Structure formats: C-alpha cells, structure tokens
Amino acid sequence: MTTTMARLRYQGVALDKADGEVADALQRVVRAYTTGRTFRAVSQSPWIETGHDSGHIECTTCGSSGIPKVIRRPYMTWQKTFELNRQIFGLTAADRSAIFGGLNHSLALYGVCESLHLGMECDFVTGMRPRAQAMQLQAAGTTVLYITPTQLRLLTGSGETLPSVRLILCGGGKLDAKTRERAGRYCPAATIHEFYGASETSFITLADAGTPEGSVGKAYPGVTIAIRNAHQGVGEVWVSSLYLFSGYAAGGSEETRTDGDFMTVGELGFLDPSGHLWLCGRRSRMVTIADKNVYPEAVEALLSQYSDSGVCAVIAAPDASRGHILHAFIQGHPDPLQEKTLRRLITEQLGSGMVPRRFWFLPEFPLLSAGKADLKRLEDYLKT
C-alpha cells in the first residue's frame, strides 16, 4: 500500500507524505480502490466517504442545474474501459498521468482510478495555478492528461510548453477549435482525444483528429447509439453498453430514462451517414423562439470558438412576444467591438433569431467544480 501511495503525488508531494483534507481524501480513494471497498465522492469535506459494502463507486454531482444526485456504478463498468483504453491508447505503467478536477468530478475520479488500475504514476494538481501546474508536469515528465476543455484552456494559457505529454483525454464539455489548436502548440507531441459521455453512461463517443469539426465522434468500442423520436432529423440520443451506471443512490434526474438495455440522459442529436454523432443540446434546455425550436448550446459552441476567452454560456429567458430571448455570458471585460463581431457571426451562421438580446461580460465567471458554467448562478444575474 505504501508503494502505491508513493506513486501518487498531490501538488508535487508524494501522497504518503502529503497533508490536508484533499490529500487525506486521495488516500481513502487508494485504500478503497485497491481493496474493492465501495466509496462515494461528495461535494464537500471530507470529499471521499467509504461505504460498508464492496464493489461500487459513487459520484455526487450537482450538474449545471444545481440539483444534487449520486450516481452508483459497479467497479467493473469502469474497469472494462480501463482495459480498452490500455489497448486503444497504449497506456502502460511507464506513463505518468495528471488530474486537474476535484474528486467530486467524475472525470477526475475516473483518471485517478484508471491510473491506479494500470499502475501509472499520477499527479493530482487541482488547486494549483496553471503555470505552477505546468511546471510540475514539466518536472514530472507527464505523458497523459485527464482534463476538461476549460482546464485545458487555462493550462495552455500559462504559455509553458509540455513536450512529454503524448495523450490528452478531454471530456466534460465541447472542445473548441481555438483551445485544440493552442494545445497542439504547447503539447506538440500530444494526440488529443475528445470524448463525450455522462456520469450515468461513462463513454459514449470518442473523437480524434479525423472527426468533423462540431461532431463529438463515433461510438466508443462496445457502445451502441440509437436516435429515437426524431423530428426534422434530430432526436433523443439513446445508448446501450456495459458501462452504464446501476442507478441513483440519492436524488435523480427526470431526463434519465431506460428502455431495456438502452438509456438516455435527455441529450438531443443525430448520426451522420459515417456514424459520427452530432449533439444539439439537452432536451431540458431546448426553448422556442418565434415558433422555432432553439438550442442555447449551439450559440455557446460558436461563442467558445470566437470569443477572446472561450469561456461562455447562454441562458434563455421567457419573453411575451417571442416565447424566449437569449442572454450570452462571456468571461472578460466589456468589449463593444467583440460583441459586434459575435453578433454578426451568430447572424451569419445561426440566423438572426439566435442572436442574444444582451451580452454580459464577467471578469469572474462562475464555474462548477467540474469546470462547467454554473447556469444557476448565471440565471441570478437576470433577476437583478
């Protein structure tokens, strides 16, 4: 056990010598995972709780709506993907990984568990500033990153080159072209694989350099995707695989439904003839503007690509005459020229009906621990 602890580092310190609540939580993950004990990641101290049974991993997540839920899954649903990733990406005990999110974020917890399972050394750099993270990864010779688009944007914004990184596994949101290009410059030896999934489903698709811009890729090995109840070519995304969770240990979501071996989390999209999945947005976020179905995520994708910061979100608000109007939130200081450019691009690419009524520029952008926009806090701006 001591040897295993020493292969993990917390903010540059070997885990068996590290102090603090997060280091203690990481130690509990190691002890639980290596003995098969059930453990739960929670959204506040002590961060990791050990259960009384065995064989299950539980993740507590609030999601962008702020409603807490606990996802329960058997160890084997992740371990099957660990073995697949060993084959797909050539992961070995010679690799060294880096984890950026909090333990209550499923991607970060997944990265820690996969590193333990495959015998990789692992650096947990959450809580460090981006430049300090980069310096730590340089010193460690890190080869694999488990990271969200927002975290990758911040890391590469430090300006430090990471020549030893060979693989970037990016999930938890859409990776915009600007961040992908910058990651290519600062991680010149890296292959970037964006994946789409949910805490309930684990992997659904995997994208690479050959994936068309805007698509989230083709089905991950062992996943079957079906589009149901399609209207004008767009329908609900249903998936079947051996990686699905077993149910909610607490809370839940009306969007998550099952039908035999298939499950949906309420995402809408379509498959092209080549099998690439294209997402339009969550069913719960779809609104009507001037009698047309509109997906705020489509505007978010465009803003993330063309805004200076790339950090953004779009909120729909009720409107008596049009049904709804959109509000755009962008990290940064007010910039009339940038706003004018963005309005023009949205009009040209998505249509005038998709142009937000107002642009809000926020120097401090509210994010969840998973690196996603905190939509609930952003909605509060509309009430003031």
From TrEMBL:
Gene3D superfamilies listed in its UniProt record: 3.30.300.30, N-terminal domain of ligase-like (3.40.50.12780)
Pfam families recorded: AMP-binding, AMP-binding_C
Domain AMP-dependent synthetase/ligase: 61-248
Domain AMP-binding enzyme C-terminal: 299-372
Domain of life: Bacteria
InterPro entries: AMP-bd_C, AMP-bd_C_sf, AMP-dep_synth/lig_dom, ANL_N_sf, ATP-dep_AMP-bd_enzyme
PANTHER family tied to this protein: LONG-CHAIN-FATTY-ACID--COA LIGASE, NONRIBOSOMAL PEPTIDE SYNTHASE PES1 (EUROFUNG)-RELATED
Name of the protein in question: AMP-binding protein
Native species: Tatumella terrea
